[in-house]
Design goal:
By secondary structure, the protein is an alpha+beta fold. The chain contains 16 helices and 20 strands. The structure holds flavin-adenine dinucleotide (FAD).
């Protein structure tokens, strides 16, 4: 579909504000740019209201990121609701999303998916999944919803600009131009660029007058260069507490599973707090603390270790650490605090045992950074929220321009929150255009 958009721009029909050129057809009331979770939802809702909708997607098919989500299973929303749901998006994000989430809460997303033939089920950590555990079912259902309502979906068309055109908009694409009185920009952020999200929307919106809050990769694995941490690759702790401190303040505190990898740390806990290693300036020296036994108080860990040493004085000290720890982890923690793992328990000093308790409850790991946009599940930052009407997602600066999904300066933790925000903002725009 590649053609030179600047040569397409020379066609006379465009300058007269006429309906879009072939092959895009028209006329249209609404152009939706980007066929991900938010764009598909917005297109379906607008088309169901009788709007003539053209959805433009750069990939050969819509919903590519949905297909990649949740390990191919798509954690489609959350069981949380009310204040707990809003809290997940932080103070500003929660405030911004309050109206749209009230209109389309997780229960309504589930009901809509159910009506489309995608039954959902609840899983651990407040997650909601399709019963089939197939992300494809979700993507297909959203596409069906949009096309059945009459939206036209054009794939393989990369938009290259969104411009004002009289009272409406001109969207320039690799396959010609399109015009409509309203536009919904839903091109996502910069994360996972191999799925098509390469940050295309920011310059368009900046040129239209919008402020873009500095974007950073979020929900991304952490890089820890320490060899002993990397050597633990493959070990998962199902229940850990991770927190980030900088300048004496706790910036984030999350109790979620943790996974050691060949590059550092992954899993929901480390990924949920990862944004702070991007947001903080280097001189703020953000520090990661890990509590490997969040259910057990430090005194109780100390007492258990003392009891194990007393009961099995001839045993290796590594074997006196909590039995839930894999042997490799226990040995690494011993080595980390300078206690040979095979030292006889009775031969350890009180100070060494204290160091082991601290390694279990207050392990400080040197984070070198994150794995960046290539491995980030979302982009934090984006179109500044005060410039967008939270009830309609319409720009407060450019009437008729709507911005939805990850492109906005709003994002949540792992757990279905980001799809939920995409659907809710898509619904708000779809009802307003
Ligand atoms: C690996 C991975 C797993 C994830 N798992 C989950 C999960 O289980 N649960 C959850 O809630 N969230 C998950 N997320 C996050 C979630 O996928 C996103 O937050 C969500 O998809 C954002 O929706 P969106 O519609 O704003 O953007 P996207 O879904 O990214 O859609 C944007 C669309 O716009 C298209 N586009 C971009 N530029 C152009 C252009 N110039 N012209 C035309 N089209 C364009 C893109 O190709 C894309 O299809 C995951 C993300 C990743 C990367």
């Amino acid at each position: 579909m590649a053609s030179d958009p600047s040569s397409a721009d020379a066609r006379p029909a465009r300058s007269q504000g006429a309906p879009p050129d072939a092959p895009l057809g028209g006329p249209f009331d609404v152009l939706v740019v980007g066929g991900g979770a938010a764009g598909l939802w917005a297109a379906g809702t607008a088309a169901a209201r009788g709007r003539r909708v053209l959805l433009l997607e750069k990939n050969a098919r819509v919903g590519v990121k949905i297909l990649a989500s949740g390990g191919g299973h798509c954690n489609v929303t959350t069981t949380l609701s009310g204040p707990a749901l809003l809290d997940a998006f932080g103070r500003d994000g929660g405030r911004f999303l309050a109206t749209s989430l009230r209109r389309l809460p997780p229960a309504a997303v589930r009901a809509r998916l159910d009506a489309l033939g995608v039954a959902t089920k609840e899983g651990p950590l407040e997650k909601v999944w399709p019963v089939s555990m197939r992300a494809r079912d979700v993507a297909d259902a959203l596409l069906r919803r949009a096309t059945a309502a009459g939206a036209r979906v054009a794939t393989g068309l990369a938009c290259v600009d969104v411009l004002r055109d009289g009272a409406g908009f001109l969207v320039r694409t690799s396959g010609g131009d399109a015009r409509a009185p309203k536009v919904v920009v839903a091109v996502g952020g910069r994360s996972y660029p191999r799925t098509g999200t390469t940050g295309d929307g920011y310059p368009w919106l900046e040129a239209l007058g919008h402020a873009i809050v500095r974007t950073v990769p979020a929900l991304v694995p952490l890089v820890v260069e320490t060899p002993w941490v990397r050597a633990l690759a493959g070990i998962a702790e199902a229940d850990a507490r991770v927190s980030v401190e900088a300048g004496g303040r706790t910036l984030a505190d999350r109790r979620r599973p943790l996974l050691f990898t060949h590059t550092g740390l992954s899993g929901p806990g480390p990924m949920d707090v990862s944004r702070w290693f991007e947001r903080c300036a280097p001189w703020e020296r953000p520090t990661l603390h890990v509590d490997l036994l969040p259910d057990v108080a430090e005194d109780a860990v100390r007492a258990a270790l003392t009891a194990a040493v007393a009961a099995r004085p001839a045993d290796r000290i590594a074997r006196c650490l909590p039995p839930s720890f894999p042997a490799r982890l226990a040995e690494s923690l011993c080595a980390h605090v300078g206690v040979p793992p095979d030292r006889r328990a009775a031969e350890t000093s009180k100070a060494e045992r204290h160091a082991l308790v601290l390694a279990t409850k207050r392990l400080t790991l040197p984070v070198a950074g994150t794995r960046g946009y290539d491995f980030a599940e979302v982009t934090a930052g984006g179109v500044a929220l005060p410039e967008v009407d939270p009830a309609t997602m319409e720009s407060r600066l450019v009437p008729g321009l709507h911005v939805v999904g990850e492109l906005l300066d709003v994002d949540g933790p792992i757990g279905g929150f980001n799809f939920q925000a995409a659907f809710a903002t898509g619904e708000a725009a779809g009802l307003a255009v």
